[in-house]
Design a protein that fits this description.
By secondary structure, this protein is an alpha/beta fold.
C-alpha cells in the first residue's frame, strides 16, 4: 500500500509539502499541487481522513444535542444535519442532553473534548446554562435564541398565531392550545402567539405543560373536552395524534378539529383541517452550514458580546387539505 512518503518521492517534493498539497492545496504553488495529486492518483494513495483532520487540530466530528428522543420533530433535523455534514466530510454524532440545569454541564464538557462544535437543539434550561455549555466549542442553537449565540430557528410561533386566526375566521369560538414540555423556549413563543391571536376574538384555554408524546395527547383529552373547545392546536404532532386517537373514541368530540402537519392530514384524509409544515431537514442543513462556518473561521466568525444572529427557516401555514 502506498504511503505519503511514496507520493512525495514520485512528485519530487518533501513529505511536508505533499501533505500540504493534499490537505491544504491553497498553501502550495498550483503546479506543485497538481504534481502531488497526479502522483497520488498514479500510486492509488488515499489520504487518511482522520489524520487530515488531526493535522488541522480538529477531530472531524460535530455533535448534535437534543433534549429527548421522544419528539419526532428532531428526526428530520438530524437527517438534514447528517446529510450536510457528510457533504463537508464531517462526521455527525447525536447526544441527548436537555441542558435543563447546571448539573449537566460536566457531561457536556466531557463531550466537548471530542468534537469540533455543537448543534444544540431546543435546550430547556435557562440562558445562563445554555451559554455556559456553548462556551466550550463553536455552537449553534436550533429552535432557541440566547443573546450572543448564533441560532437557526423555524418561526413556528408566527405560524401558530396565524393558525389560530384562521380557526377563528372559520367560526371556532372556543380553542384549546396544548402546550409542550416545561422549559421549552419554543413553547413560550407559541403560547404567546396563540394568546395574542385569540385575544378579543375567541375563548382560549391553554393546557400543559405536556411532553411531546402520543401518551400526552391521550392524557390531555379529558381536559380538552372539559374546556368545550371545538378546535385544538397541539404543540407537537405526537400530542395531536394521541389526542385524535382519544377523541375518536368519544361521541362528544366528533366535531373537534385538531390541527396537525401536512403528512398526517393527507394520510388520514382529513377535510377542513389546517396544517403547519416545518422543513426539519432544511433546519438541520442550515444549522450545520452555520456551524461549519464558525469552526472554519474560529473566533473571527463568532458574535460580539450582546449580539444575536438568527437565521430563519420558512414555515408553511396554515394550509388546508
Amino acid at each position: 500500500m502506498s504511503t505519503l512518503a511514496d507520493v512525495a518521492v514520485l512528485a519530487g517534493v518533501s513529505k511536508a509539502t505533499a501533505s500540504r498539497a493534499l490537505n491544504r492545496p491553497e498553501m502550495v504553488l498550483p503546479d506543485t499541487a497538481a504534481r502531488v495529486l497526479a502522483a497520488a492518483e498514479q500510486l492509488g494513495f488515499v489520504a487518511n481522513r482522520a489524520a487530515r483532520q488531526l493535522a488541522r487540530g480538529r477531530s472531524g466530528l460535530v455533535a448534535l444535542v437534543v433534549p429527548t428522543l421522544d419528539n419526532s420533530f428532531f428526526t428530520p433535523v438530524i437527517a438534514g444535519a447528517q446529510a450536510r455534514a457528510g457533504e463537508a466530510d464531517v462526521q455527525l454524532t447525536v447526544a441527548v442532553h436537555p441542558l435543563s440545569s447546571a448539573g449537566e454541564l460536566v457531561a457536556f464538557e466531557r463531550l466537548s473534548a471530542q468534537v469540533d462544535g455543537f448543534l444544540v437543539v431546543a435546550p430547556r434550561g435557562p440562558d445562563s446554562v445554555v451559554a455556559a455549555a456553548a462556551g466550550h466549542k463553536p455552537t449553534v442553537l436550533v429552535d432557541r435564541e440566547v443573546a450572543g449565540l448564533p441560532s437557526v430557528v423555524a418561526d413556528t410561533a408566527s405560524a401558530f398565531g396565524s393558525l389560530v386566526g384562521r380557526l377563528v375566521d372559520d367560526g371556532h369560538e372556543r380553542i384549546a392550545y396544548v402546550g409542550g414540555p416545561d422549559g421549552s423556549w419554543q413553547n413560550e413563543q407559541r403560547t404567546a402567539a396563540v394568546v395574542a391571536a385569540a385575544a378579543g376574538r375567541a375563548e382560549l384555554t391553554v393546557l400543559g405543560p405536556w411532553p411531546s408524546t402520543f401518551a400526552a395527547g391521550v392524557g390531555v383529552a379529558d381536559e380538552v373536552l372539559a374546556s368545550g373547545a371545538t378546535a385544538v392546536v397541539p404543540y407537537a404532532t405526537a400530542i395531536g395524534l394521541g389526542l385524535m386517537f382519544a377523541l375518536g373514541r368519544s361521541r362528544a368530540s366528533s366535531s373537534v378539529v385538531v390541527s396537525s402537519e401536512r403528512m398526517v392530514v393527507d394520510s388520514l384524509g382529513l377535510e377542513g383541517v389546517p396544517a403547519i409544515d416545518v422543513d426539519g431537514e432544511e433546519l438541520g442543513r442550515v444549522a450545520v452550514g452555520r456551524l461549519l462556518e464558525l469552526v472554519d473561521g474560529g473566533a473571527a466568525a463568532g458574535l460580539r458580546a450582546g449580539e444575536q444572529q438568527r437565521l430563519s427557516v420558512p414555515v408553511h401555514w396554515p394550509a388546508r387539505r
